[in-house]
Amino acid sequence: MATKEELVQTVKGIVKHWRDGQLDVAYQGYRDLFSSPEFGQHRPEDQRSALRLMIMAKGAPNPDRPTEPMIEAHRAAVSPLTDLVSNHGDPADHEMLGVCHVVLGNMESASAIFRAGLAIERQRNPQSDLCGSLMKRISLI
Questions:
Q1: pLDDT of residue 58
Q2: 82: closest CA among 122, 125, 124, 39?
Q3: How many helices (H) and strands (E) does the chain have?
Q4: Is 89 left (phi over 0), alpha (psi -120 to 50) or beta?
Q5: What is the reported pTM?
Q6: DSSP conformational letter for 62
Q7: pLDDT tens digit string along 33-42?
Q8: By the number of CB atoms within 10 A of the CB, which of 3, 18, 34, 37 ranks highest?
Q9: Which pLDDT score is estimated for 116?
Q10: What string of DSSP letters covers 76-89?
């Protein structure tokens, strides 16, 4: 199993490409990371951190016109996120999985995933920022 330190170093390399404006290279790095069998062996919180860096990135290309490397990276993120959603039911994981489906053009799936996450978060904290974010995402579909 890859160590947390190896994961951190891999993500740092990907983020450097992102900051240098090499978005295709960064997305290819994320694709390789998320599709590796070792990725799913990391602690859920470590997986979430890496996934969040890509999926919720500021300055990402427009999801309405994704590049091929962007599509491939988001497709690779679906499997680990589906596992996180299934095993932990965290509404923030629902949001990230829904965003992946938006990038992949699966609007019906995205809407259902956002709505499921919103239902969970409303039970926990109806005034949370996450509730607002999920409602906004649903309204844009």
A1: 82
A2: 39
A3: 7, 0
A4: left
A5: 0.95
A6: P
A7: 999 999 999 9
A8: 34
A9: 98
A10: HHHHHHHHHHHHH-
Maximal C-alpha separation, the chain = 41
With a cut of 70, which residues of the chain have pLDDT below it?
Answer: 1
CA distance 45 to 64: 29
Q: Six-digit token pair at 50? A: 């890496």
Task: Show Cβ contacts of residue 19 under 8 Å, excluding neighbours closer than 6 positions.
Answer: none
Residue 91 tokens, joined: 């509404």
> Where do we find the tokens 């499921």?
116
Q: Which two tokens stand for residue 71?
A: 């599509």
Cβ count near 102 (within 10 Å): 21
State the Cα–Cα distance between residues 9 and 5, nearest whole angstrom: 6
Phi, psi of 63 (to 5 degrees): -65, -15
State what percent of residues in the chain have pLDDT above 90.
92
The pLDDT of residue 1 is: 53
- Residue 112 to residues 2, 12, 16, 98: CA-CA distances in angstroms? 33, 33, 34, 8
